[in-house]
């Protein structure tokens, strides 16, 4: 009996150690993304860079000094567009190179198979890592927009606390999903299979979850504000959440079936398992694209904000004055 008890205690201790290590890993990953995004904000502080240049080369007729800072201040809504465009451009470029050099089949490889060989590997890694940093910027600005929006609503303290908690949880889960992108880009499937699949799991599982949470937040905003733009945004978000969830189920089932049957039969995608292989690859592409396109639903909210380097300004509904935004990754203070 003593041996059984000691064995049970040892197993429980081992499980607790595993949980603690997992929590520490997630915290370290979030802090790493946070620090890198802070640095990226400072490097990409384009209005201030242009302002410094104009101080040394002052010219009243200089269009750059007049127009570009104003353009950046009022064009925060372009951030989701740039992020989506970068990812799609990276996918199409690496796919074209991989097929052109016969590194993969034309119809139809897994997404990361288009970036597992040289030279497309470098393009895939750089493009996805930059896109992941841009994703973090989108996530943090969306978090601040929702936080300030809810702070202006006439909600009970308990209700406000509940939705603020939902917003914070969405922020953390979104960063975990983005960390999966870092892993996908850094660890190629042909050389480091386990971390690559872990990254795919984080991105493809937590991505649709975050889509549903964002949809719920937008629905609550619509119920309080009763504005058409919130209803349209909600309908787009709920449709994309449903589609991404269905695609996740199809991809998971077909991918697992393909791997299992391939082990049993020793077949490849070119013979008896061709149909299930194509179902798996096509659903993966569509799943990735649906999660990426979800960012475009942030555009209406971002149009209400102004960007000045690190600091963003937000205009409350019915107000003509801009309100200074709260922290963005701790980069600025209110």
From TrEMBL:
One cellular component term from this protein's GO annotations in UniProt: endomembrane system
Protein keywords: Membrane, Transmembrane, Transmembrane helix
Domain CWH43-like N-terminal: from-to ranges: 76-304
InterPro entries on file: CWH43_N, DRAM/TMEM150_Autophagy_Mod
Main location: membrane
Domain of life of the organism encoding this protein: Eukaryota
Residue ranges crossing the lipid bilayer per the database entry: 76-101, 121-141, 170-189, 201-219, 231-256, 276-299
Key word Chloroplast present: no
Subcellular localization: Endomembrane system
Pfam family, one: Frag1
Membrane topology field: Multi-pass membrane protein
Family label: Belongs to the DRAM/TMEM150 family.
Protein name: DRAM2
Source organism of the structure: Mytilus coruscus (Sea mussel)
